[in-house]
Each structure stands twice: as structure tokens, then as C-alpha cells.
Amino acid sequence: MNGTTRAGLTAWLDGLAERFTLIAPTAVGEQLLYQPVAGSSEITFDFVKTDLPAKEYFLPATHPILSIHCEGKRSGTIKRGKEGIRLEEPTLEEERVIFGLRPCDARALRILDALFLEEEPADSYYAERRERTTLIGLACREMGEECFCNSLGLALDDVSDVDLMLTEIAGGEAPGGGYAVRVVTEKGEAILSGLTLEEVAGSPPKLAVQGQISIREAEAWPEHFDDVYWARLADRCLSCRICTYVCPTCRCFDVRDYETSSGDIERLRAWDSCMAQGYRRIAGGHNPRPTKAERLRNRFYCKFCYYPMDFGSVACVGCGRCIAKCPVNVDIVEVLEDVVALGKA
Ligand code: SF4
Ligand code: SF4
To answer: What is the pTM for the complete model shown?
Structure first.
């Protein structure tokens, strides 16, 4: 099998860190996060999933998109007209490689692509980050307690959404171990230099999958829109928004202008959340989604009804982070099973 040993992999990653910004799973306090690393010694190789997805490298939590400098603003000597006004857009980012992306987090990028790249006009900030990033997948060995990716058609070693996929072979060390390497795209091919590919003995371990759950098709969801189920479920929701912030496919954002201490105006794009009370509030104070039940219902309808109707696939990859992080145990798997049960009632 064509692959590399663990030593070959770490040497290659060290080389990548010298040529690119290398982003990989690494421990930050008690969290495991995708972070820029200086070399392979900082990387965690043995993990189920990170606490946060890699979404922030394509849709940052906060991102300046424009600075407006107004000469003389502080001194009260502003010039009339365009003279004295200078607009600055942030400079382009460096080339990046993300190592250790799980197939579910890579699939989440395809879901974001449909909205940010395939709709006209494409989102230039997102497009640039995608263009400048190469994705190295690392197949899962097992599903985590909250994972249900297999119910959404994903395999633990799915290569569809990465540029290069590594699958661990029993042992992880030579002889008789290491990583199988599959090149998926030209981008993946382009970063291979420096990686010693050799015949690696052994075969990938059998991946441990869990039982599948059924999910109702998008067209069936509208009939349950007014069911009292949503109000009952929302009773315990705290509107804390964590479920949306940890989700690799949630993508709502807001654009705000701030005055800096130097008197410039900075325009920021920042994550927003449909679970926030004021998310849908419009001028005049009207809020079309004023209750927790409506907001919680919307989160599930967005992922399993509206998005599939618009783009063809559900907007969930089964990573289970929203289950793991919700402080009051709102469990998306239970909700999906309940919606199936509503259809049988
Ligand atoms: S909805 Fe939950 S399980 Fe689905 S992708 Fe988002 S965080 Fe993961
Ligand atoms: S994480 Fe749980 S409590 Fe917080 S907004 Fe989401 S469903 Fe509600």
C-alpha cells in the first residue's frame, strides 16, 4: 500500500510548516482546536474530533472587511468631498494548509461552498480563503459518542471533500504501520513534495461505525411546522447560541461599523446566530421570530428542510458538537427521531 510512516509524516509536516501556515489539531488548555502550529511536535494525532470545527478559517468569528480613514476627524478639520477619505480593505492572507481535517468537517465546507461560492455573487472573502487553503484529511478510526455522520451518507474515510487523505494503518509506526496516502486533487498533489511515499505494510483497521438513524425528507417537514412539539422542546433552551457557534455548517453573520480610538471606522463581519433573541428584529422593532420555540424550530428547519430544498443536501454533517456542547441537552438526534415519530402519529 502506498503510504508513509509516522516519521515520514512528521518530517513532511515540519517542512510544510516552513512553507505555509500549517493549521492542525492542537491542545489549548482543555480544548482541542485547529490552530496554527510551528511544527509536528505541537500536533495532536490521536483524537476523535476537535472541540470547534475549522469553520473559523473560512468564516472567521470576527473579521475586518473595510477600514475608513477620515483625515482631520479628530482635529475637526475634515475636508469636504472625497478628499481626505481613504478606504482600506484587508490584505490578502497567506497560503495555508489544514492538517487533520475529519471528513465531516470537510463536508461542512462543501455545504458552506453552496451558499458562499455557488450563489451569485460569490462571497469574495470566503472564496479567497478557500482558494488559499489546502485540506489534508485524516480518516476517523471510530465514531464519537455523539457522532451520526453515517446517517447522513458520510464514511469515516470519505475522500470527497479534501485534497489529500491519510488513513492510519495499524500501529502508526514502521515496520507494519503508518498512513495510507490518497491524493484527491491537484492541490493535494502540489503539496506532496517532501513526503517520502513508500510501500507500507498492513491495512487500515476496520472503521467502527454506529447504528444509523432515519431522517425525514425535506418535503415532510412543513406538515409539523405548527406542532406543539417545538414549544415543549424550547422550554429548556437558554438561547445561549452555543449550538450555532460550534456547528461547522452554521453560517449566519452580521456586519457592523465601529469607531476606533483613532477615529477611523472599522467595518467588521462577525458570526451571528439564529438562536439569538434579536437576530430577526428589523427596523421599527418588529421581530418575526420572537419566541424561543420559533427560533429553535428554525434551526432544525434550516438544516433539514429549507437548505435541502434550496441546495439539495441537508445542512448538517452529524458531527454531534451541538449535542456535546448544549448546556441543557437539546439533542439533535433525538429531535430527528421525534420528527420521524411525529410523521407516524
Ligand atoms: S447541527 Fe449539530 S451535528 Fe449537525 S453539523 Fe451542526 S453541530 Fe454538527
Ligand atoms: S446550545 Fe442548547 S440551550 Fe443553547 S441555544 Fe442551542 S439549543 Fe438552546
So the answer is: 0.92
